[in-house]
Amino acid sequence: MPENIVETDVAIIGGGPSGSTCASLVLKYAPDMKVMVLEKEKFPRDHVGESQLPVVGAVLDEMGVWDKVEAANFPLKIGVTLRWGKESKLWDFDFAGHEETKDLPRPGKYEGVRKQIAFQVDRAVYDKILLDHAGELGADVNEECQVAEVLRDGDRIEGLRLRDGRIVKARWYVDASGHVGVLRRAMGVEADPITTLQNIAIWDYWENTKWAVKIGVGGTRVQVLSQPSGWIWFIPLGPTRTSIGFICHSEHYKKQTKTPEELYLEALDRDDRVKSLCEGATRRGMVETTKDWSFMAERTTGENWFLVGESAGFADPVLAAGMMLAHVAARELAYTLVELNSDESRADWIKAGYDSNQRRRVSQHIRFADFWYSANGQFSDLREQCVRIAKESGLKLTPDAAWRWLAQGGFANDFVERANFGTFDVASMKHVMGFVLDKQLDWKLSDVNVLTLNLKNAEKLEIPKFHKGRIETIECYERAGRRLPMTGFYKTVVEILQQTSNAEEVMGLLKRHYGASKGATSDFNTAVQTLESLLDEHWVMGKLNKKNKRITVSTEEETDFLHFNRDEEPGS
Predict the structure, then answer these.
(1) Residue 465 sits in which domain range?
(2) Structure pTM?
(3) Residue 421 domain flag
(4) φ and ψ at residue 203, rounded to 5 degrees
(5) Which residue from 226, 420, 432, 543 has the fewest beta carbons nearer than 10 Å?
(6) Residue 83 has pLDDT above 90, yes or no
């Protein structure tokens, strides 16, 4: 073999969270495979996108890197404080109850309430921890190593020519290069801007800001604060360091005669809450900008290559889904590569499953971001853009119409076992939408008492389930782009509906199944929410029989998890 040719099983372009997660999990489940990571920069390096969702913790634990991340002493993200929607008041969305989180020990294991909360990470530190971990598991990590050319033959990649003259030849190639999309661009894959939500992000890092709220040891909330022309993020990354950014629509940015730094400082100066938190603080003094445009690649797989993370698709960061999307997609890609390594007979099905999952998941998060912006009555300077977003999305901003539009995206895209959307289950999603739209959303289950399973015109197929290093095959019904997977809570609800259509009896059987006969349990509540999602997506048809009793399901106006802000003052 010529000296300048390097052979490997998997060549990953990019050493960020997507690349590191994919490399680590491939090597965990197939330690004999050779994995090479090609990172153009030298870590540590700053990177925007620091706020996580609780789902990330499960991936970190599976990678075996949880304890290392926890040892870095990043702030615990207990939730988020928002100024959004028609109401100018601050409101809090917490991942767990205050009493459960106020006495959490640091460092802590991934157990109990720690599974419900997240981290706010300094990406310079976090990304290096993950990349080093991949190296410790056996990945051949190459920093300051840039791909100069992608050698291709049709839809097949034949190799990667590096700046240093080496040529990397692999069985499979992974594009984890972020927005740059090294393979995506080289392979001619179109990136479809499936929304008019095209924003500009401007940010800098600050030292010694106050925390808006301190909960227990190192716990706090991210601040997301809308203004007439956009919104500000305020994310504590450690005891002294804070990421503060401003996002506005690209058209608003183009109309300004100010520099990005002037626009940034002006936005911070007109926000009394941010000004209070920044009193006495100093900033790094190096403002950075980036295009923040939601998009989805037309495909995420090819003959021997894959897109993962932001090279495959990007959803606006207002709901902090970016890191979750990156980690979860990289996990599924690792499973895909391990499965292909052991058995290529199902290659087409395996790759199609990976592609479908990523496209569905990212597209639904883009859909939710569209709603989030459109419903914000405080965007006075961006009203024209928000009206256009709503119009092009076909979104009418009445509560019922908005809910139907979001539900059309499907609740089974993030997790096949239960009805969830990122951090939100059905109940919390209804609750949050009620805050934004200033009107609580009704539950369909309260309006009907006869529930009939509806599989008419549904196609029965097999989809992948990623479990303990293997891809399992599960049955699934699909109709009009929506899925009904026969696993987890969905399967239980379907089996009970096959026994009875009486809503009261259905609830009784669900209580018995989930041990909730003497009071509601978390699993029982999840099952009820799954049933509500099946009504929304027409997998279950409901009607009212006046002879039968009705059940009552409702959303409280305020709960321990979602309520108007109760902090006395910033920094208290």
Answers:
(1) 403-556
(2) 0.95
(3) yes
(4) -150, 165
(5) 543
(6) yes
